[in-house]
Amino acid sequence: MDIFELSLEDLLNVEIVTASKFQESINETPSNVLVITRKEIENRGYTSLYEIMYDIPGFDIAAAFSDLTQLHYARGNRTGSFNERTMFMIDGVEANILYAQIMNISSDFPLSAIKQIEIIYGPASAIYGPNVFSGIINVITENGSNLPEKSSNIYTRSGVGSNNTQFAEATYTANFSPIEFSLSYRRFKSNMFDISNAPGYFANGQIIGNPDIWGPYAQYYPEYQNSSNDHSIISKVKFKEIELGYSRLFTNHGLGSQYPYDKTLPTTDWIFQRDILYLKINKDLSEKLKLTFLGVNQKCGSPSQSQFALGDNQADHWDSTRTVEFLNWKYMSERWAIFQDFEYRPVTFLTINGGVKYSLGTYQKSYELGLSDQTTWLPGQSWTTPLRLFPVAPSDGFSAGNTFIETDYGAFLQSKVLLMENKMSIVGGVRYDKNNNYGEIVSPRLGATYSISTNTALKASYGTGFQTPAPRNRYGSWGGLDVNPNLKPDKIQALEMGISSKLFKNFGVDAFLFYNKITNSIMQGENLPEKNIYGFESRLNYILPNLTGWIKNAYLHFNYSYLKPQYAQERFNANTQRKSKTIGDIAPHKFNMILNFEAFKYARINFRVNFVGEKETEISNPIEKIDPYLVSHLSLQVINIFENKCTVVFNINNIFNAEYYHPGMDKASAGEDLSSPSNGWYSSRLPQPGRHFMLGINFNL
After folding, report:
1. Which candidate, 656, 647, 574, 561, places its Cα nearest to that of 611?
2. Distance CA 457, CA 449 (A)
3. How far is CA 482 from CA 98, 473, 523, 620, in A?
């Protein structure tokens, strides 16, 4: 799909499948939907999936370039140290990491595999069940269906850049009817960027490599290092109605700026691995009735090669007794799930769909550790190097007594009716879920669209969702984590209304108001008070006419979001003496601008700007505010090489070398006062990369 071949009216009718579990146009769904096409990914010069998130409205980001590259808080719903509230899918199959329900959008996913990305805002538990709380990011991958019969295609992308960054990926698609096939592979390696001169507990030499801080480990980790080594496989084969798919996503990162360096060493390896195998069968029993079966096996977690160094002082001064140790750790989860859905269209103006689900999951409770011997000494005195300085890794597989079983039954029914000569669409549905751990929950949904004209649609919806407590939050147990096996599920009610319109020939606008009421919101080991979040999101698209012979295919995109996120009652933190009703780390104002055009025959220029307003931090953070920032990026591309088969890309990110920060994760209570040990396990501010470069080349054969 080439956006330059579509009018704005056509863009309103782009087909999506994620919002309602059946195919419909963006104009017909009552949800706020954003679609990012493969062509847009190429035009903007993205090299990793996480870069896309910076240009999307409605998300606040905390990037530590650590075990999780980024946290993404959709619509003001800050949750702590993981992305628990948004569902990441690959071709409609859940791909979150089960143990902590993590939406891990990182540098592992091959962009060459992507056909389009469908982003659905708001809860969708009425269709999908648990843990579709703040929205969905569904990556639709390429297959051979668009190719001529008995043909194939290879699309490769590669690049090198600052901080010894290197990546290479390739996607092969083929159509040997009745067989369609796709296979993608990506490898990414980088030293990320050096933060050893950033404020706080990141100081190289003062902490890392200092034997008074890290004892016998100082000689093994003498200086700052934070490397990434990721890879992935995305594959699927389709034979008539049967599709078999397998995905592996693997990240191996250092700990970036997530933790203060007197508590842990950033140079150790933190690994996430996901293996997803699915079987999908689509059967058209008639022109009116379609059945879809989906069976999924998902194994994920952190294998026993994951490492973590622990250091702590017994008192709040550097001269107190200090203990350090090194450990390997692991967690793992496995889940089997089957879904049987149907779609029935008895008449042209009515669609009825529904389905049943059963899942059986085995989840590890506490982290399993391979401990070394602790080293304890009084600074200034010598220590005794223990016999077991580095640990023996824990055994693979589940351990007896440290697992629990979760079964989930679910069923939903939904109908959509077209009225007034298809000008009005009304959709309503309800879902029932029963779980052996959290009981029964009913999730309704209601929405409507009305087309004022072929170019303008009004939308309104009411949606509900719920989030089950992750195993990590119930049982995780380590020094920086509060756990509670009695946590209740989060629940959300969301109201939304908006407009999608083509105002003029080349100018379109989307604007949405929303209100979310959230109860039992989970932050580590507690259910927090009720949240009330008010917001506004807008997107403007302007396709510029070809004013001259040497500039063409020009467009301007602008999006703006406003958020007012508050707790229903004031909260107080005794350590910082701060009190507030504001949900921390959410910017009230954010905007992004993207300008794209082609010059002469062989050049494409893409310029992007991200502005994030001032953020009041979480009350546990001793740094009360994060300053606003504006960051610009430029992608210069040489196109139409070898009959449009090759593109050379040169990216300059953070053009003006702006110094800026994101708020810390979780409690973000470490502080930045080096005169004493840090106050907590999570850094208060996360330094962001300065100016950096990437040179890449893409081949489409």
Report:
1. 561
2. 6
3. 19, 7, 9, 14
Buried/exposed code over 386-407 (b: 16+ C-beta within 10 A; e: otherwise): beeeebebbeeeeeeeebeebe
Yes or no: say if 16 and 480 are a contact pair by the CB < 8 Å rule: no
Altogether, the residues listed in the chain come to a count of 701
User: Which letter, b or e, does each residue of 318-355 get, where b requires 16 or more Cβ atoms within 10 Å of its Cβ?
Assistant: beeebebbbbbbbbbbbbebebbbbbbbeeeeebbbbb
Domain count, the chain: 1
Structure tokens at 522: 């989970």
CA 310 to chain centre: 28
Nearest partner of 106 among 271, 269, 276, 251, judged by Cα: 251
Q: How far is CA 129 from CA 132, 294, 414, 700, in A?
A: 7, 15, 13, 39
Domain containing 462 — which CATH number? 2.40.170.20
Reported pTM: 0.94
Q: What is the pLDDT of residues 359-418, one digit of tens each?
A: 999 999 888 888 788 898 888 788 877 888 888 888 888 888 899 999 999 999 999 999
Q: What does each C-alpha distance from 9 to 23, 498, 623 come to in angstroms?
A: 18, 17, 47
Range of the domain at 72: 3-700
Q: Judge whether 621 and 668 are in contact, CB under 8 Å.
A: yes
For the chain, what is the largest distance between any 2 Cα atoms, rounded to a whole number of angstroms? 85
Q: Which helix (H) or strand (E) holds 187?
A: strand 179-190
Count CA within 13 A, CB hemisphere, residue 188. Answer: 26
In tens, the pLDDT along 153-189 reads 999 999 999 999 999 999 999 999 999 999 999 999 9
